[in-house]
Amino acid sequence: MTTALRTITYNNSLITPVHTAVTGRARYKVRGLYSNKALKKYLESQLLQHKAIVRAICNCSTGNILVLYHPNFGQNAIAGLIQKIVSDFSRSNVGYIDCTSYTVNKSTIPTQVVSEQKVKIASSTLVPVAGAVSALALCTLLVYTRGLDERVLLTIQKLHSPFFHNVMVGATLLGEGISLLLVSGLYGNWLLRHNRRQDANTLMVATFGGIGLNCILKLLFARSRPLLWDRIVEVSHHSFPSGHSMVSMVVYGYIAYTLAKQYPQYRNQISTLAVAVIMAIGFSRLYLGVHWLTDVTAGYAAGLVWLSACILFNAQSNPVKSLIPANYLVPELRGQFQN
User: Fold this and answer.
1) Structural domains of the chain, with CATH
2) Three-state DSSP state, 25
C-alpha cells in the first residue's frame, strides 16, 4: 500500500474525528493516546505553542483530544497539525507508534498570518476594561468629594493587630519597586527561554513605563500622605496615585495575561490569583496608613489603562502565525500501534 498526500479521509490515519460539527471546536480520537501520559503531555504542550489553538485537552482514559481553535482555521488544518505532532512524537519515542512511511510536500505548508483575529480578541476586552476604569474613576471622585478618605482609614485601623501587621507588611512587599522589577526580570527570562521574545519585551515596556508614568503623576498632583497614626513602614515621595497599586496592576496583570495565553485551561485560576494579589497589595497600603483610598483606586485605574495599552500593542506587533494553511492536505500515515 502506498502513501499519498491527500485531503483527510482518516483511513489508516493516526487520528479519527469524533465530533467536528461546531466551528472552532473539534474532538478527535488519537491513536496511541490511550493510557499514554507522555503523549498526552507532549500533544498539549505542542498544540498550545501554536497561536491558532485556544485550548487543547487530552484524555488518556478515552484516547480523545478536544481542541478549541480560532475559526480562521479549518478542521483539516487542525487535524493535520495534530497528526504531524503525533508522528513527530513517534519518531523521538520508538516503540509507541510506527509511522515509517509518509511524505509531505513542504511547499504546501506556507505560513499564514492572521493578526487581525488576535487584535480583534484583544480589542474585545476594551469594553469591560473601560467599564472598570470608569467605575474606579467614579469611586475616586465620590470618595474625594464626600471627604470619606479619612473615615475609611480610621475604620480599617480597627482591624489592627500584630498578626495582621505581619500579613500586610508581607503583602505590601509584593508591590515594592524592587520586588516588581525582580518579578519582571525573572518572568521575562522565562518568556525568553520559551521563545516568547515579544511578550518579554512588552513586559519590560509595561514595567518601566508604569513606574515612569507613576512618578510623573505623583509630581503632577504632589499630594501629601496621611498621618493618622504612627507608621510601621518607611515611605517617601508623594501619595497620589499609589505606586504599589498602579504598578502591581500593570506587572501582575500582564503576567496573568501572558500565562493565560500559554495555559488557557487555567485561565480562571490565573485571573483569580492575579486579582487577589493586586487587591491585597492595595489594601495593605490602606491598612498601613500610607495611602488614602483615592490614591489606591486612582492607581488601579491608571494602571489598568496602561496595562490595556500594552496588551493592545503586544497584539498588534505579535501577529498570529500558523505553520499550516486552512486547506492543508494531510499525509496518510501507515503503521501499527505497538504496545
Assistant:
1) 5-112+322-331 (3.30.1370.70), 116-319 (no CATH)
2) strand
Cβ atoms within 10 Å of 271's Cβ, excluding its own: 15
pLDDT tens digits, one per residue of 278-317: 999 999 988 888 888 888 988 898 898 899 888 888 877 6
The string of pLDDT tens digits covering residues 233-272 is 777 778 888 889 999 999 999 999 888 877 777 888 998 9
Which residues are marked as active site? 244, 291
> CB–CB of 109/324 below 8 Å?
yes
Integer angstrom CA distances of residue 325 from 1, 164, 238: 28, 57, 55
Helix (H, G, I), strand (E, B) or coil at 279: helix
Q: Which three cell numbers stand for residue 164?
A: 495582621
DSSP state of 321: E
